[in-house]
Amino acid sequence: MTTRLILQVCAVFLIALGATAFAQPREAPSSSEQVMLSYAPVVKRVSPAVVNIYTKRVVTRSYSPFMSDPFFDRFFGGGMGGLSRKQVENSLGSGVIVESDGLVVTNAHVIKGAQEISVVLSDGREFDAKLSLLDEPSDLAVLQMETEGEKLPYVSLRPSETLEVGDIVIAIGNPFGVGQTVTSGIVSALARSSLNINDFNFFIQTDAAINPGNSGGPLVAMDGQVVGINSAIYSRDGGSLGIGFAVPSEMVNTVIAAAKSGRMGEQGVVRPWIGVTAQAVTADIADSLGLNRPSGVLIADLHEVSPAKKAGIKAGDVIVAVNGKQVRDPAEMRFRLATVPLGEAANLEYLREGEKKTALMTAMAPPEIPARDERVLEGPHPLNGVQVSNMNPAVAVELGVADKHGGVAVIATNPRSSSFRVVRPGDIILSVNEDEIEDVKDLEREMKQGARRDGWALLIERAGRKTQIVIR
Known about the structure:
CATH class of the largest domain: Mainly Beta
Distance between the termini: 107 Å
Number of helices: 11
Number of domains: 4
Largest sheet: 7 strands, antiparallel
CATH architecture of the largest domain: Beta Barrel
């Protein structure tokens, strides 16, 4: 009887407690600010600096009686009655002003090949602009508006490192050319690197809607500062699926600094070269090295003039952080190093035989060692007219190929010559008739001897794969 009474009292107490929990007082908004909670203040602050970018380029299209058959075009070049017509192509994108004199950041793919560039502000003002820097590896470009001294609204950049997954962000741009549009979302992920959008593959992922025309517009934090430049979406049909990617502001800052300093190469920004062959630390590798988890970058090999080697890094070391920022794979390490100015030191944290160590590596440009010795091959052989160069780190970076020790790089070919069927720009010639090729002189000699031997067997590396080509 006593037990039943105790249970009844407990039940009444729990019911009363639950009713109290659900009956928390609800208060009406006590101020206009609470009633009007919105993103409007942030948008008003940023949108005047967000611009629409219109580009024009003239392209020549050929119309061949052979229906553009590549076999006939190789010999006739669209002739034999073929017609050509010039057409004007227009494209649209977004951008953001980062300095009051009209310095604009956008995507490289928005303005690539443009012959005329116009920038239109949200208030309707329009200015011509010139390209200051095109950096395809990061898919970023810098434009200079011709403002004739007029000061314009601009935004400030904030390190994307300060973001956390779940933070609210907004994207501003001109999707589909409908006019300036704002979309909101959250940071879905940071340090996304398993993509193939640009050479660095390191992005902020957001579910804020990004559509065609948004490219080049800013990704904005709630304090009104820009944390990234919207660059791409994951989509099956061209529409937004809530998976968008932005280039982090750290990379944007390096591109702006390069444009202002003039420190540029033919491919865009000249970035630090580390000169290592590296791979991600897998679970098996972590276990073999005695690491508690698979993270970091395993150094497999170092170039003889690598600044990392000079700093004391050896094959077998595992780099775990750059300037205090964790690196989980080679893509993240490349991104961290790409934001270090040339001539400055980067602090590398690494593990060697289970012991944590540090090294200071001076950021340097890809060296021209050995000298290029560029020349055009001539003679009665299948590489007649091909422009070649000795392989070195600078050439490897320009061609976007792996840095090789030895070999000769193909720089350019004539698409209408027979050599185009044999090699392409970016190929690396490793041997001819089983004789190893170390430099351009070796290649010239072997090609001339091959003519006397009645044939050539070329070992070529193309897109990371080795191919044997035999020509009689």
